[in-house]
Design a protein that fits this description.
Elements: H1 2-12, H2 28-49, H3 56-61, H4 64-73, H5 81-101
Helix pairs in contact: 1-4, 1-5, 2-4, 2-5
Length: about 110
């Protein structure tokens, strides 16, 4: 999980998110990551609202495979600006969900 988060941090460093536009998600891996993000985000929010921080970790773990599949098969820095910004925003949103639990980039 830490390696996946580290990869996201490196790609999104210095970038800002825009609203994700689902209609711009064309690759299967980015659609899968978006769906996993939606589900994990809801589970993490629910756990946090119940002050059950430990149960948020399994939800975060479910993002590891979709993150790696996305990064292994989707070119983020494409020429088309809207698609590039959408992909970067997707990754930033994933990091924000992880950030609710803690800073995974600090784990060794």
């Amino acid at each position: 999980m830490r390696q996946a988060v580290t990869r996201l941090v490196n790609i999104t460093k210095g970038k800002t998110a825009v609203e994700i536009r689902p209609e711009l998600l064309t690759e299967e891996a980015e659609k899968n990551l978006y769906a996993a993000l939606e589900k994990a985000g809801e589970e993490v929010t629910s756990a946090y609202n119940a002050y059950d921080y430990g149960s948020a970790l399994p939800a975060l773990k479910t993002l590891t495979v979709p993150i790696n599949q996305f990064l292994d098969s989707v070119m983020v820095m494409v020429e088309e600006e809207a698609v590039r910004n959408n992909r970067i925003s997707l990754l930033i949103n994933v990091l924000e969900v992880y950030g609710r639990w803690g800073d995974f980039s600090k784990l060794v």
